[in-house]
Amino acid sequence: MAAIPFFSLLLLLCSLALPTPSLATARKLSALVEQQPLILQYHHGPLFKGNITVNLIWYGKFSSTQRSIIVDFLNSLSYAKTPSSPSVSSWWQTTGKYKGGGSSRVVVGKQILDDKYSLGKALKTSQLTALASNAGYEHGGTVVNVVLTSADVAVDGFCMSRCGTHGSVRVNKSRFAYAWLGNSVSQCPGYCAWPFHQPIYGPQTPPLVAPNGDVGVDGMVINLATVLAGTVTNPFNNGYFQGPAEAPLEAVSACTGIFGKGAYPGYPGELLLEKTTGASYNAVGVNGRKYLLPAMWDPQTSTCKTLV
């Protein structure tokens, strides 16, 4: 099971407590220190490609607007007609560069609403996989069942060691992939919804304005992007990753805290601004939606690739 590595988020947040050098000083230092290229090792396991169906299990209370933000993001991943650039689909195309994989088309499948909290408001990991199993799986097809928990649901490790996770479950002779992420707005927005909320540690610089006006759900999009990219490039824990298999750095989690050019710990980088709202974003999707998406490791350049 691969989680969004919380220790990398913690290092990012702890670094905020250190004095920030001037931009000129930072440039001088970067010129003197040659950074080693980031390499994600390929462990020769299968990657996902082709048609990928994403089923959604909404656990708890989500408004129709909140659900539409997430669904529009998923629909944007493979939408080639987005009129504006940079686009969500161009971000997703980087996953097709990984050896052993290829281009993929994401489609939204079933949506299950569990707004009665069938398993209560405190969930264990085993219950997450049980919820994911409720959406079913298909023999010979590529399916990812995603569990999304609302702001009033506590999950083991949430805010303490992870913001989301992905893994796989074996059913008979088949395996299906699942992912989970939670709405952190009332539990730990300084961890899992940064940079839309002030960080828990370090200087309390003003947070960015969320592009869809929802700190929790816009933060969920960042984490959904992270676990989906990890699922496609490391679905069964033997694809692309760096470090220990039980706590891997994957396609996006290896680039924690980077959203635009010039990013450094505590600064997400240069981003686009929505004139009317002042919201920060770096990608455009369907229905005119704007999103802030994290950098993804590009295997062709061995760098964390940003859209802006």
TrEMBL record:
Family: Belongs to the EXORDIUM family.
Protein name in the entry: Protein EXORDIUM-like 2
Superkingdom in the source lineage: Eukaryota
Subcellular compartments: Secreted, Extracellular space, Apoplast
Extent of the signal sequence: 1-24
One annotated Gene Ontology cellular component of this protein: apoplast
Organism: Durio zibethinus
Stored PANTHER family: PROTEIN EXORDIUM-LIKE 2, PROTEIN EXORDIUM-LIKE 5
Main location: secreted
Keyword Iron: no
The entry's keywords: Apoplast, Secreted, Signal
